[in-house]
Amino acid sequence: MGTSTSIFVIRCINFLTVLLAVGIVGFGIWMSAHHDGCRNSLTLPVLGLGGVIFVVSVVGFLGAWKNNSILLWIYLIMLCLILMAILVFTVLAFIVTNNGSGHSVTGLRYKEYQLKDYSSWFLKQLNNTHNWKHLKSCLVKTDDCSNLSKRYKTLKQYKFAKLTPIEAGCCRPPSECGYPAVNASYYDLSFHPTSAIKDCKLYKNSKKVKCYNCDSCKAGVAQYMKTEWRVVAIFNVILFVILSIIYFVGCCARRNAARSRSKV
Fold first, then answer.
1. Fewer Cβ close by (within 10 Å): the C or N end of the chain?
2. What does the pLDDT look like over 126-150, one tens digit per residue?
3. Residue 187: partners with Cβ closer than 8 Å, 6 or more residues away
């Protein structure tokens, strides 16, 4: 790749990523202005990501603009570290999300989930009292459970609904408990449960209790997290390929900058 071409490409790419970083930081600041504890938990990672992209992009842009091989060396080192971090995280994400799947229930369109099916990492995180207290408060605030009766007016509609893993695990008792449903958000708990699992005793019709303390709810959250992590992992694979190409162009730019300097 020619000197002018590689330098021009690195300038353009890093100029665009500087703008992207400013947008990410701005989004993080906007998130911090909202007092929702669930949303604020993502503030620091978003700000950190924006800050890292900004610093790396500025170094790369200045190195290409000044045709400075030292700055381009620093840029390539930082980019290499980012590539290694993405690679490690992606591999771990695929390992962590390798286990766990739903169980079909006769007569229902949706699946039910069991916590024991998921990886030990998920078990450790979800069984941590502090972590689950925070997650539970977020689940209660979403009103997903209380909205089920508004979305499904009849028991037939509810029975054939395709619930999300969180709705299936947190908003209702497990099917093996045998509690008859009165409507989409209320079960007749006067019946003796047909299973001895603790979730049957933990479920309450109160919208603040439901099955939020149940293992089935934790399993539903684990399934949701597994799906999200898989999406992130796939995105990381694409990002890794793109950054690898940028790294290759950056290597060409640094080598050409060094040659230009040696000729002076």
1. C
2. 999 998 998 888 888 887 888 898 8
3. 172, 173, 179, 180, 181, 203, 205
